[in-house]
Amino acid sequence: MVRVRQFFKKILKPYEVQGILPNILLLLPRVIMGCLLTFIFSKELLGTPWADEGLELLQVAPWFVEKVSNFGIPFSLMPKTFAWSAGFTTAMGGILLIMGANTRITAFFIICMMLITILFRAWDGSWDILPVFSFFCFGLFFLGFGAGKYSFDYYFSRYVL
């Protein structure tokens, strides 16, 4: 039990930076990235309470399932499952980033999702890939640094674990 506790403390504890300004500079990109993922990008993919696509709760958009099935094997074997997991990661990952909860774990899943999108998405010559690449880079940043001092991770690792 002690080893499990130490493991989670190591994963959850963010990189500590002294001072208000550096911690605000960790907070702002995390909150902006979380808001963009949750309230802008996920409402097109998954039925959420804030979605305006006419989807039921946790229903994935049919156009997204078809797009995922065009990625090839293994995505074409279970396109609805992969599309739902990508939509859920976008919606819940953004909420967790806003709160600063499980930031490194969330960043890992966002990195995986964005990497799959970068590698398997059909390149049409437009700049639509730029947000995906930006989320990938910010995911790498939060995987390394964590959420900062103004987060649930900081308080949880400091006072609970």
Automatic annotation (TrEMBL):
Coiled coil: none annotated. One of its GO terms (cellular component) is plasma membrane. It is found in: Cell membrane. Keywords: Cell membrane, Membrane, Transmembrane, Transmembrane helix. It holds the Pfam family DoxX. InterPro entries: DoxX (IPR032808), DoxX-like_oxidoreductase (IPR051907). It comes from the Bacteria. It is a multi-pass membrane protein. The chain crosses the membrane at residues 20-41, 81-98, 105-123, 129-148. The keyword Membrane applies. The keyword Cell membrane applies. Belongs to the DoxX family. This is DoxX family protein. It comes from Maribacter aurantiacus.
